[in-house]
Protein: Amidase domain-containing protein
Organism: Basidiobolus ranarum
Amino acid sequence: MHSLKALTLLGTLCFSVLANAHNTPFKIEEASIRDIQAAFDKKTLTSRQLVEWYVNRIHEHDHHYNSVSEINPDIFKLASKADAERKAGKKRGPLHGIPILLKDNIATGDKMHNTAGSLALYSDACKPTRDSTIASKLRKAGALILGKACMSEWANFRTSDGSGAEYKDADGWSGRCGQTRNAYNITRSPSGSSGGPAVAVALNFVTASIGTDTDCSITAPAAIHGLVGIRPTVGLISRDMVIPIAHSQDTPGPMAKSVTDAAIMMEVLAGQDSRDPLTNMPPVPKKPVKYTNYLKKNGLRGARIGIPRHVFWEKWNRPEEKAVAEQAIQKLKELGATIVDPADILTIDRISDMSYGLGGLEYTLLYYEFKQDIQAYLAKLKKQCPMKSLSDLIQYNKDHADVEMPLFKQEVFEISQNTTNLNDPFYQKTLRLVRKLSGSQGIDAAFRKYKLDAMFVPVDWAFFPPQPLAMAGYPQINVPIGTDDEGVPFAVSFYAPAYSEHKLIQYAYALEQATKARRPPTLL
Ligand SMILES: *[C@@H]1O[C@H](CO)[C@@H](O)[C@H](O)[C@H]1NC(C)=O
Ligand SMILES: *[C@@H]1O[C@H](CO)[C@@H](O)[C@H](O)[C@H]1NC(C)=O
């Protein structure tokens, strides 16, 4: 957190409401991207003021939460430049002058680090030399990259035994940041691995953020922070210069306070990129999709929504929260949807068989891919970066066990290190099996059988069902629906086969507008 502390506070700028010449206040807290753009246009707010407000709020309050790993040292300059451009009539795009925070595994070619939470990459030598495609698309759309957000170290892919850590799976802990805390209740987990990006948006430390998801890493932290999180189809948004877990499942996506903000960000982020071949693979949409065209209040009318009771609802063991989510199903009906209940995924029990391979189907695949994918990422860093391979990272942790392994070890790294390569017939067989059980015989089969447009499931910190969705590389969006008795939100979520984001946005928007369940946390 050194660079954060090093940034000087700019006098007394802790106003929460900015007044214009006519004393019409503009409230930054909970403001949407469109609210902020309107305020820029009416000249009741500048990007510089907005950035100062966020940075001061982070300085004053983030020590309770530990959500921001570093603030862009150039952020004030960038904000002033955005203001000057707007004054000169130049608006780069829909995010012109809007501050965005990136999870600390998405590279920027500026003064900031990219570490996946690990001290092994926290050095000048291992700083990226160029923007990730995500960062460059954000800049082209006018966004200001405010900083980087803390994450569960290596996106929760270092330990299988986080029992020494404060939270299950070592959620929210990293050597780089220490423990990140839930924005709604600091005794509770921030969830992971995109915990920091969720906490920061929930607390209005920034307008929106970008997380990454391999299995629940966007949707779980978004759910427990009252946010809309989109896990896009794998291949819709480029993973260029994003520190990976596994190319079969990794997918970056927006975390925002509303479906509208998330849809605006999707339009900026989606699209083909020669640096990530999967973005060019059919059936990727040839033309960019205008996601904001799908923000329709009556968007659920006529939709067929399936309820996969088996596992996803039946095993969720929190009656009060469940009652709220059941009411949401009723709400879908009132909004004109046809509910197909139950609509089960028949392969779900086979998918979750943990006796397969190196510890279940999904993990077997991830173990093989991580070893190769992390090496490919490290090869893109400067020659001076001493980390070249997974074995270097393992050695680093051993050599720095006092700061990297005080709470948990690196069993996942060690199993991954033990794998061969992606030509191994066992890996190939596992990949085919995962695709079949999650996709063609799993989700696709259920969608065909019940003629569904989407499935509808709860997302809650206390409940981690197997995720055929993540294994198939399919998209998901969640909508806040309620708050538990410890003050922590939970969500409901729509999902569907590849490249259905436009439909999911449409359904989520209709439900969001009918429920408006997001409540901002009380700032400590
Ligand atoms: C790695 O493989 C060797 C040989 O098969 C085995 O003895 C060892 O337990 C494995 N280590 C891990 C961490 O899986
Ligand atoms: C926060 O969570 C703890 C349990 O971890 C609980 O005892 C406490 O009441 C919660 N606080 C609030 C304000 O709900």
